[in-house]
Write a structure and sequence with these properties.
By secondary structure, the chain is an alpha/beta fold. The protein has 2 domains: about 1-120, Response regulator (Rossmann fold), CATH 3.40.50.2300; about 125-220, Orthogonal Bundle (Arc Repressor Mutant, subunit A), CATH 1.10.10.10. About 40% of the residues lie in helices and about 20% in strands. The chain is built from 8 helices and 11 strands. It has helices at about 10-20, 35-40, 60-70, 85-90, 105-120, 150-165, 170-180, 190-205; strands at about 1-5, 25-30, 45-50, 75-80, 95-100, 125-130, 130-135, 140-145, 145-150, 210-215, 215-220. Strand 4 (about 75-80), helix 4 and strand 5 form a beta-alpha-beta unit. Helix 2 (about 35-40) runs parallel beside helix 3. The longest helix has 17 residues, at about 190-205. The two termini are about 30 Å apart. The model has no long low-confidence stretch (mean pLDDT about 90).
Length: about 230
């Protein structure tokens, strides 16, 4: 999943971004409202973490602009403003959640998981496809009784496929949601990571659940172990 962190406190911005990357998210960052506004419309984010006290354009204005054009992207306001008035205003303007500073990273991550589950109408923390089971809370994958050890990027790819089962997903869509803005779309990075993910899945399933549709992209389908 791809997240934008709009935070002008550089140390905090970097800490949030690094923590989320370690959990497998693709993260872009910016330090002012104008950049946040531009990135929100140029890139395809699953969630935006938005500080209210941003230079150049304050967070309320950014939120207002986002909601004028995009009602689907999840927005989590992260602010030192703790008054009920500010919280109510933020939620009324279209924020999906509001977390005050200081905060615990574990709580931030839990709120992100909750918002992303709502985005994809996922009612619990378990994604399944045949013998494949992914625990979104523990960030672990099992094929039957066997744990499947994946890199962060392979885990992110599999999560996206499981959230869009049987749907053909293009390389461009995967780049937009699994990689950040610094990824080179011409490097073949999507094919490389999908190839390694397929190899690991096939070793346990004895078959490949990720299929290629020539000229369009990839999709995951139900395959039982030892099929």
């Amino acid at each position: 999943m791809r997240i934008l962190v709009a935070e002008d406190e550089l140390d905090l911005q970097e800490a949030i971004a690094e923590g989320l990357r370690m959990e497998g998210y693709a993260v872009d960052t910016c330090g002012n409202g104008e950049d946040a506004y531009e990135l929100a419309f140029v890139e395809k984010y699953d969630l935006i973490i938005l500080d209210l006290n941003l230079p150049k354009m304050d967070g309320f204005h950014v939120l207002e602009k986002i909601r004028e054009e995009n009602e689907e992207v999840k927005v989590l306001v992260l602010s030192a403003r703790s008054s009920i008035i500010d919280k109510v205003q933020g939620l009324d303007m279209g924020a999906n959640d509001y977390l005050t500073k200081p905060f615990d990273f574990a709580e931030l991550e839990a709120r992100i998981r909750n918002l992303l589950r709502r985005k994809f109408v996922q009612e619990n923390s378990l994604l399944t496809c045949g013998e494949i089971n992914m625990d979104l809370t523990k960030r672990k994958v099992f094929v039957g009784a066997n744990e499947l050890l994946l890199t962060k990027k392979e885990l992110a790819l599999l999560e996206y496929f499981l959230l869009h089962q049987e749907k053909v997903v293009s390389q461009e869509e995967l780049m937009a949601h699994v990689w950040d803005q610094h990824a080179d779309s011409f490097s073949g990075v999507v094919r490389v990571h999908i190839a390694t993910l397929r190899k690991k899945l096939k070793a346990l399933l004895k078959n490949d659940p990720i299929r290629t549709k020539i000229g369009e992209g990839y999709y995951i389908t139900k395959i039982d172990g030892d099929a």
